[in-house]
Amino acid sequence: MAQWPSRFTNGLLNAALVAAGLGAAVLLYAFASRTVFTGPSPKRPPSDTSQLVSRIIQVEVRNGAGVDRLAERTTQYLRDRGFDVVDVGNHSSFDQAHSVVIDRAGNPEAARNVAEALGIPFSRVRQNIKPEYYLDASVILGRDYAQLRPFQEAP
């Protein structure tokens, strides 16, 4: 009877060691993925020929789905990643089915960096150059917003 508590205690210790090892492995993976896989850069690509002042990609975010605080949450997500969100608001309508990124400065690489940061497929990056907007890209959030990175991660 004296061996049962000893075996039970050893089993608990082994389980705790396995759990601690798994936890350490998850933390190591998270650290390595953040340092090795840095993600899209918020800096304007060197090939940029626009007249924009900042070296950081400047973006506007528009809510095209009609969901409260959608543009604000996306704005915070982009700012946390180093992008310069210069304008936030509603789109002209709330019937946008899919989220898109629009290149406004003739620099598709900058628009693709914004799309990559949000998890928007490159096939939904458009070009409609508007130099009078003084920004690199416009993000129009659609009803598919729940599939985007700002809404996949914990707030």
Description:
The protein is α/β, with parallel strands linked by helices and 155 residues long. It has 2 domains: 38 residues; 95 residues, Alpha-Beta Plaits (2-Layer Sandwich). Helix content is 39%, strand content 16%. The protein is built from 4 helices and 5 strands; from the N terminus they run H-E-H-E-E-H-E-E-H. It has a 5-stranded mixed beta sheet, with helices on one face. Helix 2 links the parallel strand 1 and strand 2. The chain is elongated and about 75 Å long. The relative contact order is 0.18.
List keywords for this structure.
4 helices, 2 domains, alpha/beta, 5 strands, 155 residues, 39% helix, five-stranded mixed beta sheet
Radius of gyration: 22 Å
Distance between the termini: 52 Å
Helix/sheet category:
alpha/beta
Strand content: 15-25%
CATH class of the largest domain: Alpha Beta
* Shape estimate: elongated
Order of helices and strands: HEHEEHEEH
Number of domains: 2
**CATH architecture tag of the largest domain:** 2-Layer Sandwich
Task: Please outline the helices and strands.
Layout: H1 3-36, E1 58-63, H2 70-80, E2 84-90, E3 100-103, H3 108-118, E4 125-127, E5 137-141, H4 149-152
Transmembrane segments: 12-32
Keywords: Membrane, Transmembrane, Transmembrane helix
InterPro entries: LytR/CpsA/Psr_C, LytR/CpsA/Psr_CW_biosynth
Summarize the structure.
39% of the residues lie in helices and 16% in strands. With 155 residues, the chain is α/β, with parallel strands linked by helices.
